[in-house]
Amino acid sequence: MMRKSYERFIVLFSWGSFLFLSAILLFIFIYLVMRGGGTIGSRLVFGDVSPLDALLLRQRVFDGLLPAIVGTFVLVVLAVGIALPVGLAAGIYMAEYASGWIKKILSALFDVLAGLPSIVIGLAGFSLTLFLHKILPNRIGPCLLISALALSFLIMPYVVRSTQMALESIPLALRHTAPAMGATRLQNILYVLLPNCLPDILGGAILAIGRAAEDTAVIMLTGVVASAGLPRSLFEQFEALPFYIYYISSQYANPEELQMGFGAALLLLVLCGILFVFAFLMEQLIQRRMLR
Amino acid sequence: MKKNEKIRMENICFSYKDQKILENITVSFPENSIVAVTGPSGTGKSTFLSLFNRLWETLGEGRLHGKMFVRFGGRMVDIYGDGFSAAELRRRVGMVFQAPNPLPMSIYKNIIFPLKLAGQRNNGEMVEKVEEMLMKVHLFDEVKDRLHSDARILSGGQQQRLCIARTLMLDPEILLLDEPTSSLDKNGSTRIEDLLLELRSERTLLLVSHYKDQISRLADKTYELAGKCLMRIS
After folding, report:
1. Which of B97, B105, B114 sits opposite A173 (nearest CB)?
2. Contact, B183 vs B100, CB < 8 A?
3. B183 touches chain A (CB under 8 A)
4. Burial degree of A171 (CB within 10 A; 0-12, 13-18, 19+)
5. B44 Cβ partners below 8 Å, 6+ apart?
6. Residue A107: other Cβ atoms inside 10 A
7. Residue A76 belongs to what H/E stretch?
8. pLDDT tens track of chain B, all 234 residues?
């Protein structure tokens, strides 16, 4: 009897937690739509400039969010583009090659890296900028590339850990299948183990995308500014949505400006959604190619 | 050395993580026969099988003493001796596992996978060989219209026959079978047993099994692994 009510309590608690989290998520989303939904439109993105002129780079957008949207998109793609291959390789090393005390030390290091506050990584990026500025005066300063590099260090532990855990959780029977047919260790990793844990690796990549898109502390110290226009090269300063949201919500002069901040938050969600869908489609494409 | 000897083990001792599993085993198995190994759970039957294709080496932390010879091309070869790679050995000594283990790819790709590993290119000959192997394991009629479907949608028995076909693609001289019917129903088991009897005429099969009735139907020789030793029981 006691055990039955205990089990019922656990089930109810699980359901309650799920409903509580879903309700909070829904509340945030509805609140954002209510506060910022009215601003969504071409004026929020392009300001007073016609969308065609802005997209064809005929006119610069000053009071719209286009530069921040493009800046965020390029920043996230660059940061994930750096973190994904390096993190994947490090995860493979941790799961398949590292052993003994080396594995223990590296695991501890990745855990420390995962737990580092983003402002510390931003500070490290800022120090790198100063160092590069010293050896290459007037040629390099806070810029998109250094921001992306610093962000990639912030998100890399997610990719490393998700790859490592996915590889380590593969059942021994599947792990032995290819070696029993004469596969080398590398062939086993490339043809069997990695394709088999693709969904888990993708999960890590999606977490990384979300984290890269929302972080403000890192980019604030390494290259983002309130007004820079569309990024023309990797070595220039840029605008980004999370910084715009932070900036406008702390410095707004009237309710309309604050409303634009909520609109920017909605746009950031949409941008993340597009990147998640892209990552999902990539996984589907790879799995379909494997079957063919 | 006996004329029809296929495998010979001399004073084999094996330990894993400093725990002795096999001690001083000396035995030989004839070619074109089914040799069954039985015994209580946890005595190291699967480990015993993994000595023949050196698969235990992938786990690390194991230690082997003694000599193991297999007759390849008319001469006895020390499979742990210098110059004989594990990959080459595993192409000549195939293995079928306890649970069917199709790879996450199509039926066709699963079957040609060992050839791909061996560096062969997908061509017309390969298509013919796939058909031949599927016919050999009596699976062709069941899957001929869906060769490019995911192999994991097949039933357990079909998956195990697919895995046997995949193993046979490299034409191994020895087949290691680690309780190949334990996850199948009676019908599926009977089909696999019939197939093993067909394969016996051209290969040496080492079968680990718990089922006494299966062993009596299939095995030419039966050994029991108990107390780290291998004993002939029939």
Report:
1. B97
2. yes
3. no
4. exposed
5. B14, B21, B22, B225, B228
6. 15
7. helix A66-92
8. 566 889 999 999 999 888 899 999 999 999 999 999 999 888 889 999 999 999 999 877 889 999 999 998 888 899 998 678 898 899 999 999 988 889 988 999 999 999 998 888 777 788 899 999 999 888 999 999 999 999 999 998 899 999 999 999 999 999 999 988 887 788 878 888 988 998 898 899 999 998 888 999 999 999 999 888 888 886
Q: Which domains does chain B have, with CATH numbers?
A: 5-232 (3.40.50.300)
Q: What is the CA radius of gyration of chain B?
A: 18
Q: Residue A180 and residue B95: Cβ atoms within 8 Å? A: yes
Do the chains contact at B95 and A192, CB–CB below 8 Å?
no
B 94-113 near A (Cβ less than 8 A)? 94-95, 97-99, 101, 103-106, 109, 113
Interface test with B, best of A103, A181, A194, A289 (most B CBs within 10 A): A181
Question: Helix, strand or coil for residue B184?
Answer: coil
Work out the angle between the directed axes of helices B124-136 and B107-117 (0-180°, nearest 10): 110
Q: Which residues of A touch B99 (CB under 8 A)?
A: 173
Asked if A14 reaches chain B (Cβ–Cβ under 8 Å), the answer is: no
pLDDT tens digits for A148-193?
999 999 999 999 999 999 999 998 888 999 999 999 999 999 989 9
Q: Cα-Cα-Cα-Cα dihedral of A278, A280, A286, A289, to 10°?
A: -100
Tell me the average confidence (pLDDT) per consecutive run of 10 residues in chain A, 292 residues long. Answer: 86 96 95 91 88 86 89 94 95 93 93 91 93 85 93 94 93 90 92 88 86 90 87 90 92 88 92 87 81 68
Rounded to whole angstroms, how far apart are CA atoms A80 and A87?
Answer: 10
**Beta carbons of A182 and B101 less than 8 Å apart:** no
The Cα-based distances of A262 to A33, A38, A241, B152 in angstroms read 8, 10, 11, 47
**Domain residue ranges in chain A:** 65-291
ipTM of model over 0.90:
no
Contact state of A181 with B98 under an 8 Å Cβ cutoff:
no
- Domain A65-291 superfamily per CATH: MetI-like (1.10.3720.10)
| DSSP conformational letter for A181 | G
Asked if A176's CB is within 8 angstroms of B118's CB, the reply is: no
d(CA A55, CA B198): 71
Contacts of A290 in chain B (CB under 8 A): 104-105, 109
Q: Which pLDDT score, from 0 to 100, does residue B52 have?
A: 94
